[in-house]
Amino acid sequence: MYDSIIPTADTIPVHWLWFQVLLILTFFIHMILMNFLLGGSLLTVWDYFTGKLEKKTSGSIPTLVALTVNFGVPPLLFVQVLYGHLFYSSSVMLAVPWILVVPILILAYYGAYIFVKRADKFPVLSKAALVFTSLSLLYIAFVFVNNNTLAIQPDRWGIYFKNPGGWNLNLGEPTLWPRYLHFLLSALGIGALGRAIFYRFSKMKDKEKETQIKRNLKIFAWITVIQFAVGTWFWLTMPKPVWLTFMGGSFFATAMMVTGWLLALLILHSAFTGRLTTAMILGGLEVLVMVIVRDLARLAYLKEVFRPSQLENVSEFSPLVVFLLVFVVGLLAIYYMIRLISKSKTPQS
Amino acid sequence: MNYPLWFLPQLGGGLLIAIIAVLHVVISHLAVGGGLFLVLTERKAVLTKNNALLEYVRNHTWFFLLLTMVFGGISGVGIWFIIALVNPAATSSLIHTFVFGWAIEWVFFLGEIVALLIYHYRFGKMDPKSHMTLGWLYFIFAWLSLFAINGILGFMLTPGKWIETGSFWHGFLNPSFLPSLIFRTCISLIFAGIFGLVTGAWLKDSEMRRTVFRLCARWMYIPLAVLVLTGIYYTRVISAESFANLFHFNRESTPFIILIIVSSILLFGLGLFTLVKSSQRIQKIGALVLVLISFGWMGGFEYMREIARKPYVLYGHMYSTGITPAQMEAVNNEGFLHIAKWSEVKALNDTNLLEAGSEIFRLQCMSCHTINGYNGVLNKSDQLTERGLEAMLTGMGKVNSYMPPFAGTSDEKRAVAAYIYRELQGKTTLPDVAFEPDTLLLDIPHFDPDSDDYVLLVWNDLGMHCISDNEKYFSFLPPANTFNAQLFIRGPLPKLVSSGITMEYAVEEGFQHPEYHSMFWDYDEAIFGADLPEGTGLMGKGVNGSMESHGAVFAAHLIPVVPYMDNKTYNPYPVFTITAKDKSTGDVLAVTKAVAPTSTEMGCRNCHEGGWARTDISGMADLTAINILAVHDRFNGTTLLEDAENGEPRLCQSCHADPALMATGKPDVLNFSSAIHGFHANYLSGMDQEACNMCHPSREEGNTNCFRGRHTQVGVGCTECHGALEDHALGLLANQTGIEASTRLSRGLEPVYAYSKEEIKPRMPWHMEPDCRSCHTNFNIFEDGFTGTAFNSWVPGKEALYRNRTDNHGVMCIACHGSTHAVYGAYNKYGLQRDNQQPLQYQGLAGTIGTHGQCMVCHTIEMSSSGHHRNMLNRDPLPMLVE
User: What's the pLDDT score for residue B170?
Assistant: First the structure.
C-alpha cells in the first residue's frame, strides 16, 4: 500500500552526487557543532551541579547555537533536495512536535544567553536557563531522530490515517531509542573532545589547562567505550537487510563500518593516553565516517523504495557554479573578519 | 494531492504560516536596515567624538543581536518548517528549483552571523576603522541575504519567463525582483529607525534621547517617499489578475488594504512624536507602540502579496491546493480520489458519498480552509444549499480567481458539496418532489361561427414571466403583466378594429387584491420612485381595467397581478376575461379569456438557501434575498444588504440597464441580462437545460412549468433556441465588451453550441432573440435548412421579435400562435387547456388559430391561399389537442 502513497519527487538541477557530497560534508560540520553544543551544554549542566563549572567554555554556548543552526541549514536543504518527498511526508505526520522545535529553539537560544549573561547577578535563573536550554536541545534531537526514522520507512506511514493531526512520533520504531542514545552519547563524547580542544587554545595556566584536557579526553574515551555497546545495539535493531549491508552486503558499507570500529579503537587509545591532537583528528574522522554510515543505512532502508539516482536531472549548472564562487568569497570574507580581530587590538576611544 | 495534509480543523496551517511569517519578516527586515543603522551611527559617533552616541550604538547592537540573530534567525528556519508542513508540494518545488539560491543565501547568513558576533563581542576592543569595516560587512551580507530571498519571494508572485523556460535565472531575476528589492530595502531602513527608538527611549540622558529620536526619525521618513513610489511600481509589474484580486472584485483583500492604510497613517502619523519634545515615559510607550504597529503594517503588506498570488502558491505554476494547472486535465478526467496519493478512498461509489467528499475536502480544500476556525468553511458556506455549494465549486477560479478551480470529476464535486452541507453544516437536502396542482376548471366563452361578427385575440406578451417577490430586499421583476389584443371583424377579408371600441379586462375571482399578497406597494417608492395606489401597477393599471389602443393593437401594460389568491392558493396562471365593447353603445362585441403567467417560482433558493417564502411552494424567502445581496456586496463592493435593511431596497436595474424595464442603468455596469446570466453561467456550467431550470420557472416538476408550449412536446428544450447557458451568456457579454466585467465573466465560459467564443454573435437582451425562422425555414416545420437550433440566429432588433411581428395584413404572429414559451397547443400544469382557451373557443382545436384549414375562424369563406405566411395551409390533417 505504501508504494502508492510515496509522493512523486521533483527534479534536480545537477547530478545527484553533488547533493550527496554536499549533504555529507555540511552535515558533518553540523554534527560536530551540534555535538559541541548539546554535549557541551549537558556537560556544563553536569559541571554546574557538581560544582566544577568553568566559565571559559560555557560562555561559548550561545555562539555555538548560532553556528549549529546556521550549519544545520545546508544539510537540511540538501536532504530535502534528495529525499524531500519522504522527509516532508514524515514531517507532516509529526507536525506538532516538529514545529514546536522552532519556538523551543528560540527559547533555548535565549536561555543560553540568560545563562551566560545573568550568571553573576541571577545565578539561579542562570542555572535554570541552562537546564532549560539543555532539555530543549534534547527535545529537538529527539524529534529529529523521530522524523528521520519515519522518513525512511514509508511502510510505517499508515499511522497518518489514524491521526492526521500531526501527533505521530515514531515511538514504535525499534531503532528509535538506541539511535537517540547513540547520538546523545556521540554529543557527549565529541562535546567533551570539543571542550578539550577549547581548553587547548584557552589562556589558562598550563597545569589547569592540562587537567581539563585530560579530564575531558577521559570522558570522550569512556563515552566511546559505551558507544561500542550502544552502537551495536542500534545496529542490530535495524532491519536485517540493513544491518547485513554493513556485514558484507555491500563492500563499501562494510568497509566504512569496519573503519568506524577501528577508529573508535584508536580513539580509545589516544583519548585514554591524553593525546589531544590525535584524538581530535580521529574523532573528526569518526564523525565523518559515521555520517557516511548513516547515509548508507538510509540508502539500505530505502533500497526497495527510492534511490536518489532516480531523480530526474534537468541540468542547470550555472547556479551551482555561482554558489561555489559565493561560498569561496564568503569563506574569504569570514577569514578576513577573523583576521581583523587578531590584527586590530586598539581599544576604541 | 502529492502529500499528506496536516489536519488542523480549527487552527489552519495558513494562520500558522501568517503568525510565524509576520514576526519573522519584521525582524528580518530590521536585520538588514538595522545593520546600516548601526555602522552609520557608529561612524557619526566616531567622527563627532560623541561617546554617548557610541555607547548607544553598543547597547543597541546587543538588543539588535538578540532580536535579529536569535529570534530572526530561528524564526526564518521556522518559516521553512511551517511552509513545508502546510504546503509541502510548493516547498519542494521552491527547494528544488532554487536549491543553489538557498545555498547562496546560507553563505550570506553565515557571513551575517560571523560579522555580527564579532561586531558585538569586539565592540570597543578594536580600532574604529576595523570595527566599522565589520559593521559594513554585516550590512552587506544582510542585504545580500535579502537580495537572495527577494528573488525567490518575487518568483512566487511573478515567475516571469520561468514558466516557459524553467531557468533558475529567469525565475530568480523575475519581473518583481527589482521593485520588491527596493521596496523591502526601504522597509528595512524604516524599521531600523523604529527599532532604534526602543533602545533610544531607555537612554537616561534626555538630550541624548532627543538626539537619537531625531536620528531615528530621519531613518523612518527619508525612505518613505521611495517606498511609496516603488510600491506603485510594484503594483505595475504584477499580473492584471493579481491587481484585480487585490483591488477589485475580491473582498478578501479589503481588511488588509484597510490594515495597510490605517497602520501607515498611524505609523507615520504617530511617528511624528519623535520630533516633539516629550517625557521619557511617552517616548518609551511611543516607541513600543510604533513597533507594534510596524508588525501590523508588515502583516498587511505580506497578506496583500499573498492575496495577489492567489489562486496560486507559485503563480501560474501551482495552485494553493498544491495541484498544478498541468495536472488538472488528468485529475478532472480520472478523478481526484484516483490520483491523490494520500486518499484512503480511491473511488466514489453509491455508498461512500460523504466519506469521499470528506477525503477530497481534506486533501484539497483544507490546504487553505479550516472547518470552523480561521478561514473556516462552515461560516463561508452557510449561505448556500448543497446544490449551491456544487455550483460554487463549479465556478471556483472563474469569475473570482481568488480560489483555484476544483480538481476532480463532477461526481466528486457533488460529494464535496454533500459533505460540506450534510456532514459539516448538519443540514438535510430534501429530495425534489414533483409538484402536482389540482386541475382547475375552465369556463371557455362561447363562440358561434355562424352568428358572431368579431374575433378577439388576446395574449400576454411574455409566456414565461416571474416576479422577484421580495421587494423588502430588492426587485428586478415587479408584478407586471402586459396584455395585448387584436379585434377582427369577421368577413371574407376580415378587418382589424383600431377605434370605436373599448377593451376591458378583468381578473378571475380570487386575484382581485394583489396588494394583500405582495410587498410591492410597501417599497414602490424606494425601488421604483413612485408612490402607487395599492393594487395599481407601474403604468397605472390594476387587475381590472381597460386597454389602450396602439393602432390595431390594444394593450394594458404592467398589470400588477400576483400568483397568490385570496384563499392563499398559489396559482401562477390567473385567467383574465377580456371584453371588447362598442364604444358608443356599450354593446359587447367579443369576449375571450387569456392567461397572465405570473410565477414566483424563482430558483434563487436552489442555491442561495432560504427555502420557499410562502406555504412551502413559492416565493423568495428573506434569507434567500439576504444571501443574494451579501454575495453581490462581496463581489462588487456594494452595500445593498445594509441599504435594504435600512429600508432602502434597490431595483437591480437602477444600475444594470434593462430594455425590458426601459432602464438605462449605469454605463460602466453590465446590463441586467448580461450580468445575471454571465455570472451564473460560470457556476452552472455543463448542465444544458437543467441550468435554465435552476433559475427560471421552467422545470417540469416545478410549481409553474412555465415552458409549456407545444415545443416541449416535440423535444425542443430551452437550449435548442437559446443555446446552453454558457452560449446564452457569451452572446450577451459579447455585446458589452467595452465593460471590464464582460471579460471577467466570459473568460471562464466554454461555448457549447458553438465551436468558439468568437463565433457567437453579440446580442442585445430582449431585442435580439432567437429567430423562429432559423428552424421554421420558409414558415414550415421541418424543411430544408432546418438546423435544429435557433441559437446564434438572432432577429436583428426589437421590431423583428416574434411578439412584435405581424404579417402583411397587420396580424400579429403571437396573436394566432400564442405567447412565447406557451405557443398553442400548450400543456398547462394547472389544467391542460388553460393556455389554449382561445383556440378552443374559436375553432375547437387547441393549435394555432386557423391551423388545419380553420380559416373560417376569421374568414367567412373558404380560403385557398396562404395569406398570412407561406406554407400555412400545408399541414397534414393531424389535429392537435382536440378536446
Answer: 97
Q: What is the largest CA-CA distance in chain A?
A: 71
Residue B479 DSSP code: S
Fold of B454-595: Immunoglobulin-like (2.60.40)
Residue ranges of the domains in chain B?
13-318, 331-424, 454-595, 657-857
User: Could you say which of 1.10.760, 3.30.2010, 3.30.70, 2.60.40 is the CATH number of the domain covering B331-424?
Assistant: 1.10.760
How far does A237 lie from chain B, in Å, by closest CA? 28
Beta B495-497 vs B454-460: how paired, if at all?
Answer: unpaired
Rounded to 5°, the CA angle B659-B661-B667 comes to 55
Question: Among residues B367, B328, B319, which one has the least CA distance to residue B156?
Answer: B319
| Cβ contact B765:B671 at 8 Å | yes
Supply the DSSP symbol for B196. H
Main-chain dihedrals φ then ψ at residue B250, nearest 5 degrees: -150, 105
Q: Do the bridges between strand B618-620 and strand B612-614 make them parallel or antiparallel, or are there none, so unpaired?
A: antiparallel
Query: Cell numbers at residue A262, please?
Result: 577501528
Q: Are strands B481-489 and B553-559 parallel, antiparallel or unpaired?
A: antiparallel
Residue A295: how many CA atoms within 13 Å on its side-chain side? 25
Look at the pTM and tell me if it is higher than 0.95: no
With residues binned 3-state (H G I as helix, E B as strand, rest as coil), the percentages for chain A, rounded to 5, are 80, 0, 20
Distance CA B480, CA B555 (A): 13
Interface residue B62 vs chain A (CB under 8 A): no
Note the Cα A266 to chain centre separation in Å: 22
Nearest to A82 by CA among A153, A13, A12, A156: A12
Domains of chain A with bracketed CATH: 9-310 (1.20.1630.10)
pLDDT at res. A323: 98
Subunit contact B70:A69, Cβ cutoff 8 A: no
Q: Which of B81, B113, B362 sits opposite A99 (nearest CB)?
A: B81
Please answer yes or no on whether B6 and A165 come within 8 Å at the CB atom. yes
Residue A175 in contact with residue A238, Cβ under 8 Å?
Answer: yes
DSSP code string of B376-429: BHHHHHTTS-HHHHHHHHHHTTTSSTTSPPP-S-HHHHHHHHHIIIIIIS----
Low-confidence ranges of chain A (pLDDT < 50): 1, 348-349
Q: For residue B564, what are the β-bridge partners?
A: B570
Scan for cell 397572465, then name that residue: B596
Strand partners, B582: B501
**B646-673 burial, b if ≥16 CB within 10 A, otherwise e?**
eeebbbbbbbbbbbbbebebeeebbbbb
Which candidate in B69, B77, B116, B167 is best for mutational testing of the A interface (most A CBs within 10 A)? B77
pLDDT mean by block of 10 residues, chain B; 883 residues:
92 92 96 97 96 95 95 96 96 97 98 96 92 97 98 96 96 96 97 96 93 95 94 90 81 88 93 87 94 95 91 95 95 95 92 96 93 91 95 93 94 97 94 88 94 96 88 95 97 94 96 95 94 95 96 95 92 96 96 96 94 88 96 92 96 96 94 97 94 93 92 89 95 95 94 94 95 84 67 92 94 95 94 95 93 90 86 61 43
Answer whether B65's CB lies under 8 Å from B120's CB. yes
B521: DSSP letter = G
Report long-range pairs for B802-806 (Cβ below 8 Å, ≥24 apart).
Answer: B802/B769, B802/B772, B803/B461, B803/B462
Q: How far is B111 from chain A (nearest CA, A)?
A: 6
Count how many pairs of residues, chain A against chain B, have C-beta atoms within 8 Å.
214
pLDDT number for residue A348 = 44
Whose cell is 413559492? That residue is B618
Q: B13-318 is classed in which CATH architecture?
A: Up-down Bundle (1.20)
Tally the residues of chain A.
Answer: 349
